[in-house]
Amino acid sequence: MICLRDILFIILGLIVLKNLLVAFFFYGDIRAAQKRDPAAKSFVEILLLYQGLHALVAYRAAHFFYLLHLYFLARFISQMARWATGIEIHPGAKIGRRFFIDHGMGVVIGETAIVGDDVLLYQGVTLGGTGLAHEKRHPTIGNNVVIGGGAKVLGNITVGDNSYIGANAVVIKDVPANSTVVGVPGRITKQDGKKIDVSLDHIHILDPIMQNIEELEKRIEKLEKK
Ligand SMILES: CC(C)(COP(=O)(O)OP(=O)(O)OC[C@H]1O[C@@H](n2cnc3c(N)ncnc32)[C@H](O)[C@@H]1OP(=O)(O)O)[C@@H](O)C(=O)NCCC(=O)NCCS
Predict the structure, then answer these.
(1) Cα–Cα distances in Å, from 172 out to 102, 147, 200, 223?
(2) Lowest-confidence segment of 58-67, 190-199, 201-210 by average pLDDT
(3) How far does Cα 14 stand from its chain's mean position?
(4) Binding pocket residue ranges, ligand 1, CB within 6 Å
(5) Tens digit of pLDDT for each residue in 41-57?
């Protein structure tokens, strides 16, 4: 006859087993989190308490079922993970190795997003879609990219390797490798380690206010000549 104590032991055993399996299969991701979060005190702390890791574990399971075309089950796992962690990763997204979401709350990764290796996202990041067509409509993020808190990367665009997206930036155009992008809409402030002087850069200016000012300046110049 099974008593309550046995049931508790079984549950405890399953929890320990689950965490051992996660520690084994997600060793690289946990080490990456340890490297990239100065607040992380130990491997065990990340294993047990980091919702970014828990969301990733759930995503890997959901993605497995997505690939088997078990879409409802895949979506069910991802919604449970969203409920538990505040992080929504669509099971169809493709995510590389040593992926780390720090803090995590409010992160949304869309169905056709592709994320490279060694990528770090902070809370509130959206890798979002534009348009309703059933085609690639979410971004592709290269390797070793950092996306700051609250940043939105929208549409079928590419963020090149080793790039930084500043906190709260809204990125709607391709970002070349080794770039830093800030602002709304996102503009490149650094490339290959060199600062880009926005006032001289006529390729990357996307800011409509700057464009209006430039037009006004031209009109004033014309009037002055008259
Ligand atoms: C963009 C970022 C990566 C810094 O890159 P950097 O190359 O070191 O940039 P700098 O600090 O030299 O700043 C370059 C310019 O961009 C501006 N800038 C920096 N971050 C910005 C941001 N998020 N939004 C708007 N402007 C920003 C700076 O004021 C500076 O402007 P200036 O040239 O007119 O003085 C960083 O500021 C950032 O946003 N990191 C995200 C961190 C984060 O989200 N942490 C969450 C922890 S919980």
Answers:
(1) 23, 14, 21, 36
(2) 201-210
(3) 31
(4) 103, 122, 148-149, 164, 166-168, 180, 182-183, 189-190
(5) 999 999 999 999 999 99
Strands 146-147 and 120-121: parallel
| pLDDT band (50, 70, 90) for residue 197 | low
Return the residue matching tokens 């996660």. Answer: 22
Rounded to two decimals, the pTM is 0.85
Q: What is the DSSP letter of 104?
A: -
Of 144, 184, 189, best ligand 1 pocket probe by most atoms within 8 Å of the beta carbon: 189
Tokens for 140?
Answer: 């592709």
Token couple for 158: 């590419």
The answer to whether 72 and 89 are in contact (CB under 8 A) is no
